[in-house]
Design a protein that fits this description.
By secondary structure, this protein is an alpha+beta fold. 28% of the residues lie in helices and 41% in strands. The protein is built from four helices and nine strands. The protein has helices at 16-27, 55-67, 99-108, 129-139; strands at residues 3-11, 31-38, 44-52, 71-77, 82-93, 112-116, 120-127, 144-149, 153-156. Strands 5, 6, 7, 8 and 9 form a five-stranded antiparallel beta sheet that branches. Strands 2-3-1-4 form a four-stranded antiparallel beta sheet, covered by helices on one side. The protein starts with a strand and ends in an 8-residue tail after the last strand.
Length: 164
């Protein structure tokens, strides 16, 4: 099954996130990633929702979201016409022997070492989901102690704008 990315503009008020996430749970849809933040207009928030499913599931999700009073507009963001990024913080077990190899791997992925101790290295990485998964795969053998991901954020390329 494919994953789909939806950009959703919503009213920036208490309870909106709860109503949107509640819709997903009531319908039995899983949210793979959900990020929310205020837009250039303080009255409007932008949600980036990543869901897995076929086109019929996506169609149902869009129809159900459209019925919510807080939802202003929705757009599916195609991979070829959107910019997608995520931030990830990874704390890795790092003894003196492994430290330089871990730093080199981070460098290859244009990630930054943001904290170092006698037993750990913490790395910050930004990029698409594939890049971050690739970095994780190379770091797993060293021992990932902690991992935090922001969830995907996305915008359409060029002059296309999701408007209220």
């Amino acid at each position: 099954m494919a994953y789909h990315v939806l950009a959703v503009l919503v009213e920036n008020r208490a309870g909106t996130l709860s109503r949107v996430s509640g819709l997903f749970s009531r319908r039995g849809f899983n949210i793979d990633s959900l990020t929310v933040g205020q837009t250039e207009n303080p009255d409007i928030s932008r949600m980036t929702i990543v869901v897995t499913g076929d086109d019929a599931i996506l169609e149902q999700i869009v129809k159900q979201l459209s019925k919510l009073i807080d939802v202003i507009s929705i757009r599916k963001l195609e991979t070829s016409s959107s910019i997608r990024r995520e931030i990830m913080l990874i704390k890795i077990k790092a003894n003196e022997k492994d430290r330089s190899a871990i730093v080199e791997i981070a460098s290859i992925f244009r990630a930054r070492v943001i904290d170092i101790s006698s037993e750990t290295i913490t790395i910050e990485a930004t990029g698409g989901m594939g890049k971050l998964e690739g970095l994780l795969e190379l770091l797993r053998p060293y021992g990932i102690l902690e991992l935090a991901r922001t969830g995907l954020v996305a915008l359409e390329r060029g002059v296309s704008i999701l408007k209220a």
